[in-house]
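Entry 12.
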Amino acid sequence: MKTLDLSLSVFSSRIIQSTREDVILKASETRGLWICDENTRNLLPLPEESILALKPGEEQKTWDNVDRILSRCVEMELDRDSVIFGLGGGVVCDMAAFAASIYKRGCGLTLVPTTLLCMVDAGIGGKTGIDYGGYKNLVGTFYPASSILIVPQFLGSLPRKELLNGIVETIKHGIIGSPELLTFMEANRDRILSGDSEITEKLIWLSLRVKSSLVEEDLYEKGRRAWLNLGHTFGHALEAHEGIGKISHGEAVAWGLERALTFGTMLGITGTGVRERILHLLSSYGCLPRFGVDAEDLISGMKQDKKKSRGAVRIIIPVREGEVTVRDYSTEELIPLFKKLG
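Predicted 3D structure (tokens):
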């Protein structure tokens, strides 16, 4: 059984490769509330009185749904030793974790990601939150789950669009910290897209090692953890422009990666060969969408980004495979650059 232990400031977190049967046993042994959505509620034979099933979709990441979770915790008379479980993708796990972080100033939390995106990214590292005021994850906390149970067999029924959301994040992890991961994805494209279990398992763990190492070093994003935001400053601005939930996270981040690569190339920071390689890889997986956003709208979307530093917009720019740089720009500096970017 594969495990990965993380020491995260005052928290500890263990990522455990599990089976469906392992999770069922965990559920039978632990008192708590299972948060899921209408797509994941039937993945496990859980008692109805222990389930809160939400509607699926990014637009569900709201205060109202967090209030529903907290109300159920009160109704069930859960205490600080009880556990809130998140069974689902990033939306479910983000809200379950946020609720756990504030219920009785922090109760137990176990996440069971059911999408590739959540297994390699959203469920790892302790960021919790909801969308607010039309912006992604504007309200939240840092609260790592004590256990993250990775069950690759849950991916068997994952729609192609959801698989691609996770693939974009694994490509991002390759760019910032693992040339080996990029090479692996280039060599195994067909097997990854076909859902080959052996290859998918290796893909998950190669990607997990990149994110977990950065999170363990820098839980509160004061340093190198910011690298994980590659593509997200552009991508979240696009989501704000298009409307939360109108496009998928993978589409937004893939577009953001293309913008960051092109921006870096324009400034002479990113090697031309690097840009061409990554865009070819994204395209080969069917993950290279096209959107038109003018400079003013793009900057408007970035103004509320959590990743701003002292009023400046922080942009992560690839240098070469396995290396990125962090640059801060004022909005006045960005307007002519973005107009030139096209």
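Annotation: The chain has a mean pLDDT of 92. Residues 197-217 form the longest helix (21 residues).
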